[in-house]
Known about the structure:
Elements: H1 9-12, H2 22-41, H3 46-58, H4 62-78, H5 84-103, H6 136-142, E1 166-169, E2 172-174, H7 178-189, E3 194-197, H8 210-215, E4 223-229, E5 258-263, H9 265-274, E6 278-291, E7 297-301, H10 307-314, H11 319-329, E8 334-342, E9 347-351, E10 355-363, E11 365-371, H12 376-379, H13 407-411, E12 415-420, E13 425-428, E14 433-439, E15 446-454, H14 456-460, H15 468-486, H16 491-501, H17 516-530, H18 535-542, H19 550-555, H20 562-575
Parallel strand pairs: 1-12, 2-3
Antiparallel strand pairs: 3-13, 4-5, 4-6, 6-7, 6-8, 8-15, 9-14, 10-13, 10-15, 11-12, 11-14
Amino acid sequence: MLSSHSQCSHWRGQTTSSSCSLTARRQWANRRRRIVQATAKAPLDIAGALKRGRAAADVGRIQVAIAEFLRVQRYAATHPEVPEALRLPASAAFASVDKLYQQEELLVPAAVRRGGSLILQEPNGVGRRCQRSMALSQVAANMSQAAGATPAQTQEVAARCEDWLIGGQVPRIDCSSPEGFQSALNLVQQRVPVVMEKLDLMPRTRLWDVDYLEKNTTEWPGLNVLRSSGDDNRYLYYVPEQQDRDMSAFQGAPRHASREFRSSFEDFLEMAKQDPKSKYYLQAPLVLRDPQEDGSIKEEWSKGLTSRLRKDVEQDVNWQRLKSIEAAGRFGEWSRSQLFVGPGQSLSPVHYDQYDNIYLQVSGKKTFIIFDPGAAEGLYPFPLCHPYDEYGMVDLQNVDHDLFPQARQTLTGRGAVAQLNPQDVLYIPTHWWHHVCGEAEPGAWSISVNFWYSIFRVLFEAPHPFPCHLELEFARHLELLMSDCAGSSHVGKMVSDLHEDLLDDADPSTMDEASLSSRNYILYRLAKLLGADQVKPFLCQYFPKERFRRGSVLSALEASDPKQRSNANAKAKKKK
């Protein structure tokens, strides 16, 4: 084993007994000769790296030794030409690192022990990854003959995004028959988005127009409203403080598009009438449900609801069908429901939620452009310490290919369209990206309501290998660990160093040791959970350097900000 004091003798190139037979000595000499011959053909001197690692451990430079052994294991896993004679000592080196982390608790970053951390998940066998999800367009094609499947809609897509992003449509299923509903449940079971027609989930929502909602809400001024200036009509949540993380790196980051405030429903409608230059969008929780330690659920219903509207949400629901959907998707607890009342031509830019989402369109229409969780590689999520966490930095209306060079290559045709008509229900699996455009007739509103389901329990029972949505959550946990260990301002530096660590010619003895212990642990857990051959692909997919370059982050979404466009146009005119 590798310890802070000594190494196993087979890593020193020594035998453990002076009474070894001549045959054994010859076998060892032949093995050493094969290793030297193989090393001469390999770009990385594996035997030399192992020797340097042992030497570093002997003088107490444990982190340098770990970095050498992890590098050897990754190289052997990603280069098929490496012979078995070299793979065996590489595997032994990783086994020693594995044992060391299990025995020496002080080497494990304390910050990793957050509740529900996927980093601490123990793999089921060897590390490996799930295969990438089938494209939604292919799923829809495969489902075209299923019971209840309806033809793809052909009307013009009001998506507010560049055309090359769209590759097909989300499957649509007519759920009016038992066979059709079962087809929809089959997709939910596969954690695939699906539009469910004629589900009849909340019958009384057919009465929900703004007059009905105004009549059945109170004067409580605590409903959440977003206001967008000018013609932009975009809405993003800006959260400058989070209790569970350091947010100092992007304190005071520019706010784009909308502002938030609180209002009663009546005042919300009145402001929309009195301020035609702005656009108003109510996005208000109806109920929050918090599981307690004794297994009960603490419910907090909005003070803005009358008993009639609460009954619409709590009782007048087709619970049999909703429970069937919950069971098929193995959802966590119903966590919250939210009311959405927005204007036509509204846009909620591409983002993901950490909830499974059952989304009912009540009136008006909505168009969703949906991407699988792995599309993060081209959507470039804002850093977790940014107020726009969970949004993509890429503006799908004006993609900046200089700032985000992987966007075109990874997103072309990857988006799928889901067009919702009144009473359609959309299932959005947790961590699936969605870009949402509201539609309504002039003077009318687009109204929706949803059920969000917590994934917290799932984190403690996570399957291995991680399905695609949990890979994105795993990446979040790694980023939080980096921030906890180095501070949010230094996450970008740590990411850059991790990419340097992955180079074949990296020299651990000259690496920046300030964060080496944290980086080693991250690379070790990646190899343990995903496989050594997947460490680099995973980091490139979820942690491209561009994601953390301050200029890229602060410039994200500028092209769609009316004030920024106006300033840019003014500067351009002055130059002329």
